[in-house]
Recover the amino acids of this structure.
């Protein structure tokens, strides 16, 4: 009709998106991988790149796979919780260092504490892609049979940890 | 009792805001003097009421009234007084109250400094501000009441987020809010002008000082926030492209465009529709920023507790305020004349390019900030957009902008000649080029990016110097005779150049070392040597600190002791880092404590950051430029001239 309506049009589109966005929790994403086997991979360990790690080694154990990166701001937010969790030795946490520089990652762990039983370097992000990583941080709960049971998008909060992750881990460990 | 008074003051303020928002608007339409006259006292009364409410909340904080939920959640009896006051805006409810304090403060200021404006114009401007107040007060009273009680009260407060326990909290948010809420005045002027159909040079002239003032506050507020992040986060960065940072930066970019566009509208009468749209956009983006930060649609390090009711409320508010102003724009804009014609190469067209680049930059930052939300809303998944996107998009837009900044001030209005400008800037360019190619050799390894950044900065500085020399030689009054606005422009532009130098050299030459240190270990960064003396324990008012002692020396001479700290607050599991910084004109030396590795050893991070303070120095210069522009006698003279015209008009 007239070009002066363009700003209004753009704004309406924006409002529609914001309205939809409001009804979604940016931290909750259904993952097609839940209930499926964790994708296999073999990647070098962060601290000792000569050694490799593969999820197959974890058969028979319940474990957490936490995807993080030193460039990730939100990872800092959840980090103290992970450190705290690791001190309790309830469940082993494996860190997948996603699209990161080795030196930066090592420094980050030195600075903020290292909660990981082992860190794995996914420098080109291929494995992250297999796992359907949308954005770091993400955390997967993987059961004894190597099946992904739960996926947390975004930083872990105390609430999520206490109400979802820990009960689930205990449940899975009993099986 | 006092909190109830505050609550009551808020309700009264809402009623006054309704009066202020409705009656003067009708009065201006019907030309009813008494209704028009209501606007000013209403604006002042509203400010007083909000200030009362704000004072009551502050009182509750100072007196540790933990029966007020908001106080119990954000304060603690051990919190030092300064932070108890700062904690008033350390959470959602209180920061909205601060927002309101700023909004009504600007309204009251308009009511005092508008004697030279036609009464109908003032009435409409204040009415628009009143309507915005109505929306926000409803929001506060219905969803975010800071005075809500819990009975019986809590015995002790939960404490302020340790991240916020820093002097930065006391100054940064008020400054920032002054800035982005300040754009409401330019917005109100734009809406008033659209309603009255009086979109002309006079409107632009009235809007300019208000826009400038808001822009100065916003500039300082953002710079302070950046400096705060630099020394408190302990990782040496100064800008993270976090959604909350972007929420303040986008209005800054648009506000900067608005400042320049207003100049064209005032001087040449063109770009009127564009200017009005920018004025609407600057404030709309401030509101959008508030929405993004307060509704929790985006995740950010500034994570706030979120409540879906609040999100929907702000969204509706946003839709009404922005939607109605854009409808008004669509109705009125087609009737606005085009203003003076100008050539392809002219100051107008250069300023237009400035505007386009700034708006594109703002748009791309906005896109990056909202992209995760768009993708999610369309069901395509979740993702996060990080600094790599912003850096790779933002820098290529800013580079031509800085390049053109040298041309704008020397170009003539209406029609400029390229040959003439090229002649004047030929030498400038050669000097800048040689200096930019040579300088990196003196500073460290030569890199094309450093040279490019320096070229832009030197080009800008040299053009300013050339312009100043030129003026001194060719005008009768010499440098003293130049208007303050001329100095203001060059100061602000110089600020940009200084900022660019700072960013370029920090990016290019910062040295960062992470080391494991035992007592008496040393580490050398550039010419500086750090000796780790040890770590001792120190008690703060509400935390226990591990205080490191690091001896800084240069060429064997001890300069000073640096004391970075790691603070464990009693109320929180998260330790806070307090970096120790030796600030210098040409470099910062920055030490922060990492984690203890064993009994004796710590991980220690040392940074050498050349020219980092130039980043904030540049921002400060921009703000000083803004202040000098505000003091330009033009604004005062115009007031006098206006009065004369009115008198002559009355005589005729």
């Amino acid at each position: 009709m007239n070009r002066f309506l363009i700003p209004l049009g753009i704004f309406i589109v924006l409002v529609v998106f914001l309205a939809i966005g409001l009804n979604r929790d940016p931290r909750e994403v259904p993952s097609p991988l839940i209930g499926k086997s964790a994708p296999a991979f073999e990647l070098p360990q962060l601290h000792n790149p000569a050694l490799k790690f593969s999820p197959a080694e974890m058969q028979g154990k319940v474990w957490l796979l936490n995807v993080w990166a030193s460039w990730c701001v939100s990872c800092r937010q959840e980090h103290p919780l992970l450190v705290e969790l690791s001190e309790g030795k309830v469940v082993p946490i494996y860190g997948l260092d996603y699209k990161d520089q080795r030196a930066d990652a090592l420094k980050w762990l030195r600075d903020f504490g290292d909660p990981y039983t082992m860190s794995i370097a996914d420098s080109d992000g291929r494995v992250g892609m297999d796992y359907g990583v949308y954005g770091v941080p993400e955390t997967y709960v993987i059961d004894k049979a190597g099946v992904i049971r739960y996926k947390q998008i975004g930083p872990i909060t105390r609430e999520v940890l206490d109400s979802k992750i820990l009960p689930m881990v205990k449940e899975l460990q009993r099986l | 009792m006092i909190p109830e008074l505050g609550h009551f003051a808020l309700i009264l303020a809402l009623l006054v805001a309704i009066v202020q928002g409705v009656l003067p608007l009708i009065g201006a339409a019907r030309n009813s003097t008494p209704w028009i006259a209501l606007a000013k006292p209403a604006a002042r009364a509203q400010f007083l009421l909000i200030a009362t409410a704000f004072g009551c909340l502050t009182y509750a904080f100072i007196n540790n009234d933990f029966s007020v939920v908001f106080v119990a959640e954000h304060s603690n009896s051990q919190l030092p007084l300064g932070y108890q006051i700062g904690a008033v805006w350390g959470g959602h409810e209180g920061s909205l109250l601060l927002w309101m304090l700023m909004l009504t403060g600007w309204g009251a200021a308009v009511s005092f400094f508008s004697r030279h404006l036609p009464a109908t114009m003032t009435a409409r401007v204040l009415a628009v501000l009143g309507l915005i107040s109505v929306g926000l007060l409803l929001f506060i009273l219905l969803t975010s009441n800071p005075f809500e009680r819990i009975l019986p009260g809590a015995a002790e407060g939960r404490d302020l987020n340790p991240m916020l326990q820093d002097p930065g909290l006391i100054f940064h948010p008020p400054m920032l809010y002054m800035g982005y809420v300040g754009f409401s005045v330019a917005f109100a002027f734009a809406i008033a002008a659209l309603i009255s159909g009086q979109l002309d040079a006079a409107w632009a002239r009235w809007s300019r000082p208000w826009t400038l003032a808001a822009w100065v506050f916003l500039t300082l507020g953002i710079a302070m926030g950046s400096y705060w992040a630099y020394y408190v986060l302990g990782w040496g960065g100064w800008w993270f492209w976090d959604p909350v940072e972007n929420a303040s930066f986008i209005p800054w970019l648009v506000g900067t465009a608005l400042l320049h566009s207003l100049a064209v509208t005032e001087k040449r009468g063109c770009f009127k529709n564009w200017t009005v749209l920018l004025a609407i956009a600057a404030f709309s983006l401030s509101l959008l920023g508030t929405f993004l930060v307060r509704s929790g649609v985006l995740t950010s390090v500034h994570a706030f507790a979120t409540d879906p009711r609040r999100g929907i409320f702000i969204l509706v508010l946003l839709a009404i305020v922005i939607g109605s102003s854009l409808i008004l724009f669509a109705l009125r804009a087609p009737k606005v004349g085009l203003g003076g014609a100008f050539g392809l190469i002219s100051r107008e067209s250069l300023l237009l390019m400035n505007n386009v680049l700034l708006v594109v930059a703002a748009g791309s930052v906005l896109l990056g900030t909202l992209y995760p939300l768009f993708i999610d809303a369309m069901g395509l998944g979740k993702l996060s957009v990080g600094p790599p996107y912003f850096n790779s998009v933002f820098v290529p837009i800013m580079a031509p902008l800085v390049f053109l900044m040298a041309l704008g001030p020397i170009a003539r209005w209406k029609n400029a000649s390229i040959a003439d400008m090229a002649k004047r800037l030929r030498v400038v360019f050669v000097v800048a080029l040689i200096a930019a190619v040579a300088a990196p050799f003196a500073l460290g390894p030569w890199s094309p990016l450093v040279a490019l950044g320096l070229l832009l900065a030197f080009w800008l500085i040299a053009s300013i110097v050339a312009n100043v020399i030129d003026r001194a030689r060719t005008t009768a009054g010499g440098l003293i005779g130049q208007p303050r606005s001329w100095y203001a422009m060059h100061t602000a532009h110089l600020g940009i150049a200084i900022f660019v130098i700072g960013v370029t050299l920090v990016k290019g030459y910062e040295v960062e070392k992470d080391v494991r240190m035992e007592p008496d270990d040393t580490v050398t960064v550039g010419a500086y040597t750090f000796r780790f003396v040890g770590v001792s324990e120190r008690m703060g008012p509400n935390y226990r600190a591990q205080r490191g002692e690091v001896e800084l020396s240069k060429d064997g001479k001890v300069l000073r002791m640096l004391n970075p700290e790691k603070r464990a607050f009693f109320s929180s599991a998260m330790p806070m880092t307090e970096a120790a910084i030796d600030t210098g004109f040409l470099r910062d030396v920055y030490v922060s404590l990492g984690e203890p590795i064993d009994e004796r050893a710590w991980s220690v991070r040392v940074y050498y950051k050349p020219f980092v303070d130039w980043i904030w120095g540049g921002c400060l210069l921009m703000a000083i430029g803004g202040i000098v522009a505000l003091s330009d006698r033009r604004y005062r003279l115009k007031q006098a001239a206006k009065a004369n015209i009115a008198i002559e008009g009355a005589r005729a």
